[in-house]
Amino acid sequence: MKKGHFIRVQCDIPRFLTTDQYCVWWCYLAGKASNCSWDLLPRLNGCEVRRLQIQIRTGLQNVRPMHNQGTFRVTLSMRKEPDGGPVFCKMETTQRFKQLKTVKLHTDTTYRVDVSFKPPRALQSLVIAGQEVEPCERSRDSTACAYSSYYNTDGLSPSKKGQRQDLVIAMKVQGSGELSTCLQIKLYKQHDTQHCEWGSRLHCIELDCCAQEGAMAVTVSKETYRKLGLDC
Question: In this structure, are residues 63 and 30 in contact, taking their beta carbons and an 8 Å threshold?
Answer without folding.
Answer: yes
